[in-house]
Specification:
Length: 493
């Protein structure tokens, strides 16, 4: 074979190999392009109705009781999108194709191989309404979709279309329940509450005990976290502790997010008394009872005051006129007159009157915060309830949409009740339990959604509420600062 022929053949072979290479490169580039496809609006990619198939925890090895998930459904049309109890009108669907492994690892820190995905790539639909994000829904396979709620991946399977719709539940009673809920314009399924509790003192060390419960409900799923000491929200999250040093007690309050913690600053602490019991914690104010006696018996604590969180170390009472003006002062005097049968003139001339007015605290009473002051009459400690509703600057939210009398009809053992804004749920406190009820048609449902054990001697000193999009942020903080606890299941107190 001549040299020219050999050279020609080598050129042809090189060109052929280049074509193959370029062809292969094009295939790989196409695959990469698909994995990072720009989001595009689509008309209605999920149209149809879906029923619950299974639920898995995002963390490997964690068991999930699917009892509360079995009635979970979803429905998508051009007019509306509904996932469980949550619904938006005029939804916009934006689709993107992602690498399934990267998506789950980066977003949920979990291995997607546990979820029986059929392809390496996965279509994710982001649903928005009026510029607000609703949910991301992803296709597990041709007939199944996945939705993440909390720490759970819920898989739903497409079902036969029914003109009347599935509703969020699949039996008649539940459909009726949802219809009545949706008729309530104030209803919002997602809410959570930080409940602060003060427990008994340790008999040996005499040290006080405080903890916080974070309790949430989104219409289908309820969760509870426990945090040491009192976690409360302001613009950021703060903590409150009662510290005992050199035979006396004091408060310690510090930010744990946002601005640097004031625990790290050089502070010369003041000690208001030998014993300090916290009665109320709000965003900006705290009520305490103190005693310098040898006993920490709360019935003998007559020194009470409400102080500001900022500058708490001074323990200066906030004047009642700050919230109510002169009418607040008159309400105190009227209450004191009724308690002592004395004339207003005599009380005005008594220096102890000023101490009485400055000694108010907030405490729980039958579903609301009430104001109370105390004074010593001989050997007796007199508690005087003040005829003033807690001001919004003291207590951000304090409502009962169901009268206390009706709460007691449903739960005769009820001692207190906490009503979620948006009527997501009501917590009813009995001596040993916190019971979460759904609110329906102005009544509590017959059975509680869940029941949480608490100690009989614990007093609730805080109720700070979050709703809507804030719930996730608060849940993340509770998970970071505390640990998840398990509900008491199927228990009738």
């Amino acid at each position: 074979m001549s040299r020219d022929i050999v050279k020609k053949n080598m050129i042809i072979l090189a060109v052929f190999m280049m074509v193959l290479c370029l062809s292969g490169c094009k295939i790989r580039l196409a695959e990469i392009s698909a994995s990072v496809m720009a989001p595009v609006k689509v008309t209605n990619p999920l149209e149809g109705q879906y029923r619950f198939k299974k639920v898995q925890h995002l963390e490997e090895g964690k068991f999930v009781d699917d009892t509360g998930f079995r009635t979970f459904t979803a429905e998508f049309t051009k007019e509306a999108a509904r996932i469980g109890l949550e619904r938006v009108d005029s939804p916009q669907y934006i689709a993107k194709l992602v690498n399934a492994y990267d998506y789950f690892v980066e977003k949920f820190r979990t291995d997607p191989n546990r979820f029986e995905l059929t392809d390496d790539q996965m279509e994710v639909m982001r649903i928005t309404s009026e510029g607000q994000s609703f949910y991301e829904v992803f296709r597990m396979n041709e007939d199944e979709i996945g939705i993440v709620k909390g720490n759970h991946l819920i898989t739903l399977v497409k079902t036969e279309f029914t003109q009347e719709g599935l509703g969020p539940y699949v039996d008649g009673k539940a459909n009726q329940l949802e219809n009545e809920l949706l008729e309530d314009q104030d209803y919002e399924p997602i809410a959570g509450v930080l409940l602060g509790l003060r427990g008994e003192r340790n008999e040996e060390t005499e040290e006080s005990s405080y903890r916080t419960l974070w309790i949430t409900n989104d219409g289908e799923i309820q969760e509870v976290y426990e945090i040491d000491n009192i976690l409360f929200p302001r613009k950021e999250f703060w903590k409150m502790e009662v510290v005992k040093e050199a035979g006396k007690e004091r408060l310690q309050i510090y930010a744990i997010t946002g601005t640097p913690s004031n625990v790290k600053e050089e502070i010369v602490y003041n000690y208001p008394a030998e014993y300090v019991d916290v009665e109320f914690v709000g965003n900006n104010y705290i009520s305490i009872l103190t005693s310098d006696e040898n006993s920490y018996d709360r019935s003998e604590m007559t020194e009470g005051k409400t102080i500001g969180v900022d500058g708490y170390n001074e323990y200066t009472p906030v004047p009642i006129e700050t919230f109510y003006g002169e009418s607040g002062r008159q309400a105190f005097l009227s209450s004191l007159i009724q308690a002592t049968d004395e004339t207003e003139e005599a009380l005005m001339a008594n220096p102890a009157t000023e101490e009485f007015i400055d000694s108010y605290i907030l405490r729980r009473h039958h579903g609301n915060w009430m104001m109370e002051s105390r004074f010593q009459l001989g050997n007796d400690s007199i508690k005087v309830p003040i005829a003033l509703r807690a001001d919004i600057n003291l207590v951000t939210y304090d409502e009962l949409t169901i009268p206390w009398s009706k709460v007691r009809e449903r739960v005769p053992q009820a001692l207190d009740a906490f009503n979620a804004p948006g009527n997501s749920f009501m917590l009813v406190r009995t001596p040993k339990y916190l019971m979460m009820y759904r609110i329906l048609g102005g009544e509590l449902t017959e059975e509680p959604l869940q029941v949480i054990e608490i100690k009989e001697e614990e007093e609730i000193i805080m109720a700070e509420w979050a709703r809507g999009e804030f719930v996730k942020r608060w849940t993340d903080m509770a998970a970071k600062e505390g640990s998840k606890i398990i509900f008491v299941q199927n228990h009738r107190p």
